Amino acid sequence: MSLVNLPPKPGGFIPRDRTWQPDGLTPTYKTSVRRSPQAPLLSFPSTLSEETSPVFGHHLIGPLDNDLILNYAQPGQSAIGPRIIVHGRVLDELGRGVAGALVEFWQANAGGRYRHKKESYQAALDPNFGGCGRTITGADGSYEFRTIQPGPYPWPNGMNDWRPAHIHFSLFGHGFAQRLITQMYFEGDPLIKRCPIVGVLKSQEAVDALTAPLDMHQSVPMDCLAYKFDMVLRGQRQTYFENRKEGL
Ligand SMILES: [Fe+2]
């Protein structure tokens, strides 16, 4: 059974399972060699402002911020690629929705190309696609945005490594240090099992928790397919977050 499908434990504290997260040093993911700590971690007490200070307000969301098909497009035009809806919920360890969380997302275009000055992949830019957006979860922790399905892209890791199609996610809580970052993959992508970054995960359950299934119920006929991606902030069923060890 997938860990994401386990029923929530009733009541009580669910301790964090630190073995669920990958090790910091994973040489098959080359960048981890330089990024992982070389000395034992030190623990610093957090300050009051780190734990409580607001970092955003609901007023910052624009009308097209959750529509990557249109938010960078010229009037009357739209981004090129398979049109999709990505939706899901941000959940706590008991399966309860987390309201008011800022969800940010960024991705490559349909050809696998990022709009970034350090991008080195030769796939073409789409003049109508910027590649980033944001939204805020509703009362039940739900979020939704519209985009195009990103393409896979090569990256300088091994001799010929390719990233599976993916969307990067950032979740902000209500304190400065409450930020979690992860990636969503697409059901059925043959590159998932070949990816050195996915390969640092310790179990198939962890990979499955980052893989969004096709959701025909939320698709729109003649318009968009849909994928469902829930993110669990902590506890027994926690989503893998790249920066988990850094946060509060
Ligand atoms: Fe990426």
UniProtKB/TrEMBL annotation:
Signal peptide: none annotated. Keywords: Dioxygenase, Oxidoreductase. The keyword Oxidoreductase applies. Residues 1-21 are annotated as: Disordered. The keyword Iron-sulfur does not apply. InterPro entries: Intradiol_dOase_C, Intradiol_dOase_core, Intradiol_RC_Dioxygenase, PCDO_beta_N, Protocat_dOase_b. It holds the Pfam family Dioxygenase_C. GO terms for biological process: 3,4-dihydroxybenzoate catabolic process. Transmembrane segments: none annotated. GO terms for molecular function: ferric iron binding; protocatechuate 3,4-dioxygenase activity. Residues 86-114 form the Intradiol ring-cleavage dioxygenases domain. Coiled coil: none annotated. Belongs to the intradiol ring-cleavage dioxygenase family. This is Protocatechuate 3,4-dioxygenase beta chain. It comes from Yoonia vestfoldensis SKA53.
